[in-house]
């Protein structure tokens, strides 16, 4: 038997003010996006904003459906729109924020597994890392230098 170890490193910012200016602006776009979420069932609103290498910012919010599997998370809404609208642009950075209409959300909320897989697909496609910043409605912000830090054992096209 052999074993191996995987490690990921993250940075934690105590407040928005500690972030670089361009990331503060991007995170503010997530707040606007999450206010547009359609979340009548979970009452959990998520906003995502992507900064592309062409300077464009693309946002998305979660969109729920009474048939639960038919909804779509904010991160995938944004990344799929960016892929359709700007197919040759690279995603430099994604910011994510979440809030609940049931209780305060002060812990950083990372992307779900399906969103991690969708994001890593674009990271592999563009052959460059994308930074990932995520937070609740307030409090600390976590930064990953790459989606691979959130999903270290990726499944990609090399297996197909």
Q: Mind summarizing the main beta sheet?
A: 6 strands, mixed
For the largest beta sheet, what order do the strands appear in spatially?
Answer: 1-6-5-4-2-3
As a whole number of angstroms, the C-alpha radius of gyration is: 16 Å
Overall geometry? globular
Approximately what portion of the residues adopt beta-strand conformation?
Answer: 15-25%
Q: Structural class, from secondary structure content? A: alpha+beta
- Which range best describes the helical content: under 10%, 10-25%, 25-40%, 40-55%, 55-70% or over 70%? 25-40%
Order of helices and strands: EHEEHEHEEH
Number of helices: 4
Runs in which pLDDT lies below 50 for 5 or more consecutive residues are none
Mean pLDDT: 96
Number of strands: 6
């Amino acid at each position: 038997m052999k074993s191996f170890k995987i490690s990921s490193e993250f940075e934690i910012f105590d407040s928005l003010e500690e972030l670089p200016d361009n990331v503060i602006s991007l995170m503010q776009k997530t707040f606007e996006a999450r206010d547009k979420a359609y979340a009548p069932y979970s009452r959990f609103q998520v906003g995502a904003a992507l900064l592309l290498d062409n300077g464009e910012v693309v946002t998305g919010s979660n969109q729920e459906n009474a048939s639960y599997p038919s909804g779509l998370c904010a991160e995938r809404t944004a990344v799929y729109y960016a892929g359709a609208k700007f197919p040759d642009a690279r995603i430099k950075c994604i910011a994510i924020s979440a809030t609940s209409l049931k209780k305060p959300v002060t812990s950083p909320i990372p992307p779900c597994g399906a969103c991690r897989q969708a994001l890593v697909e674009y990271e592999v496609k563009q052959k460059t890392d994308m930074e990932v910043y995520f937070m609740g409605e307030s409090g600390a912000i976590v930064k990953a230098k790459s989606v691979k830090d959130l999903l270290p054992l990726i499944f990609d096209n090399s297996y197909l």
